[in-house]
Design a protein that fits this description.
Among the domains are: 67 residues, Single Sheet (N-terminal domain of TfIIb), CATH 2.20.25.90; 41 residues, no CATH class. Helices cover 30% and strands 21% of the residues. The protein is built from 4 helices and 7 strands, in the order αβββαββαβαβ. The strands form 3 sheets. Strands 1-2-3 form a 3-stranded antiparallel beta sheet. A two-stranded antiparallel ribbon has the order 4-5. It has a two-stranded parallel ribbon with strand order 6-7. The longest helix has 19 residues.
């Protein structure tokens, strides 16, 4: 507990509440982040978590440490990257707005040239529930114009 008190009073440390990425349960997790060194210091169950009531499984408690391991993640991507100029051109940093617009423009061009059935949407059980699966299939059918939708739950 002494370390925890020191962590909470360190000036560059900040607690960020997020959703645990390991399964579809949606447990809230409080991550203590050292902003100065850009490292996760600690993770614990958020007391505001409806699904987990402040508790976490072993993956939620200790599974975040790979973020700080230079042998696993030597160069984490922290900003969108766009390759302009075709194959072999270097990836260049971009803003989120540029990356989203670039993706939308490329997707439109692909659909125009090859048709909507050349695009596929894939869903995942990791996330906030059936609503995301519904939105994925709705987007693919109504916006893209294809029935090419898959989900990991079919396996």
């Amino acid at each position: 507990m002494r370390l925890l008190k020191e962590v909470n009073h360190h000036m560059s440390y900040e607690t960020i509440t997020t959703v645990c990425p390991y399964c579809g349960t949606g447990c809230l997790i409080d991550c203590t982040v050292d902003r100065e060194n850009n490292r996760v210091i600690e993770a614990k169950g958020s007391p505001h978590g409806v699904n987990n009531d402040g508790r976490l499984c072993l993956k939620g408690l200790y599974g975040w440490d790979y973020l700080n391991d230079p042998k696993i993640l030597t160069k984490r991507i922290r900003t969108p990257l766009i390759r302009r100029g075709g194959k072999g051109a270097p990836l260049k940093p971009a803003t989120w707005e540029e990356a989203i617009q670039y993706t939308a423009d490329r997707l439109k061009a692909i659909i125009k040239e090859y048709g909507p059935d050349t695009v596929m949407g894939a869903g995942s059980a990791r996330g906030p529930g059936n609503e995301v699966g519904y939105l994925t299939q709705k987007f693919m059918r109504a916006v893209i114009g294809t029935n090419n939708v898959d989900h990991c739950a079919r396996i």
